[in-house]
Amino acid sequence: MILALLMLVPAFVGEFWAYQLGLYFLYALAAMGVGLTWGQAGILPLGVDIRPPQLEPLAHAYGLAYRRVASAAELGHALQEYRSARRPLIIDVDARPFE
Description:
It contains four helices and two strands; from the N terminus they run αααβαβ. By secondary structure, it is mainly α. Among the domains are: 13-40; 55-93, no CATH class. It is rod-shaped and about 85 Å long.
């Protein structure tokens, strides 16, 4: 029934407006697909890979000291360095557990 009504649309509104109406339906269908993918599923495939931020260039850009630590001993040295530094220090702690 709906298909028969859609085939009669050009007879009532003309070919140009039938074409425009078809484009609007296609845009609506695409918008619903993006809305479903982004809103309901929570993802939008953009080809972007999420990586941790690089803190060293950021620290140098703002004039901060930077220290990356991978062990508890290095953390102790970094904290001592923070006490003696005359500027703020960013300590980047490795996510793996200290050995």
